Amino acid sequence: MNRISRRLFLLSIPAALGGVYFWNKRKKWKYIVVHHSAGSSGNLKFLKNVHKERFPYSKYMAYHFLIGNGKGMKEGEIAYGKRWKNQIWGAHVSYRNKFKNYSGIGICMIGNFEKYKMGEKQYQGMFSLIKYLKIKYKIDSNNVLFHGKIHKEQTLCPGKNFPYERLIKDIKKS
Ligand SMILES: [Zn+2]
């Protein structure tokens, strides 16, 4: 083993330990993070390509779930990607909040709620999915988060017209 490969080998040890640590962390879903796609239409394939443009080696979209707005998917339709199927971490918040990627279920609402309002069917799809995940993984209501409202995230996501108050109220009741 030469000096460089020895160094790479030694460096790989903390990386592997970190991987094992996060493997255990992310097995427990602790957060739900809600996003919007910021585009007018979308589906699994489209969102997968959006992520691939930023991260060419990625085979997955950034989120675990998508909820359609009637353009590309039916309004209120729930779809899940391979991250959910394989129960792996998300890539929907910045590295500054990496724990919310490792242990946060990313739900992306198709649409741009900075510009438009959410349809009722899409709202109901979102609410039913969050309610289901909250009960199944015993996630606290306070851990249902909105991307741009997470400390240190610099984004308007999921937009000023997103029904924050209604959703928080419905979640706390459920
Ligand atoms: Zn977002």
Q: Which class do the helix and strand fractions yield?
A: alpha/beta
Largest sheet: 5 strands, mixed
Low-pLDDT segments: none
Separation of the first and last Cα atoms: 59 Å
- So how many helices? 6
Shape: globular
CATH topology assignment: Lysozyme-like
Total beta-strand segments: 5
Per CATH, the architecture is 3-Layer(aba) Sandwich
Mean pLDDT: 91
Rg over CA atoms: 18 Å
Q: Can you list the strand order of the major beta sheet?
A: 3-2-4-1-5
Bound ligand species: zinc ion
How many independent structural domains?
1
Q: Write the CATH homologous superfamily.
A: Peptidoglycan recognition protein-like
> Percent of residues in helical segments?
40-55%
CATH class: Alpha Beta
Element-by-element helix/strand order = HEHEEHHEHEH
Say what oligomer this is: single chain
Beta-strand fraction estimate: 5-15%
Give a structural overview.
Helix content is 41%, strand content 12%. By secondary structure, it is α/β, with parallel strands linked by helices. It has one domain (29-173): Lysozyme-like, CATH 3.40.80. The longest helix is centred in the N-terminal third of the chain and has 25 residues, at 3-27. The mean pLDDT is 91. The chain binds zinc ion. Zinc ion (ZN) binds at residues 35, 92, 147, 155, 157.
Which labels suit this protein?
single chain, 174 residues, alpha/beta, Lysozyme-like, 12% strand
Which secondary structure elements does this structure contain, and how are they paired or packed?
Layout: H1 3-27, E1 31-36, H2 44-54, E2 65-67, E3 78-80, H3 82-85, H4 98-102, E4 104-109, H5 120-136, E5 144-146, H6 164-173
Parallel strand pairs: 1-4, 1-5, 2-4
Antiparallel strand pairs: 2-3
The chain binds zinc ion.
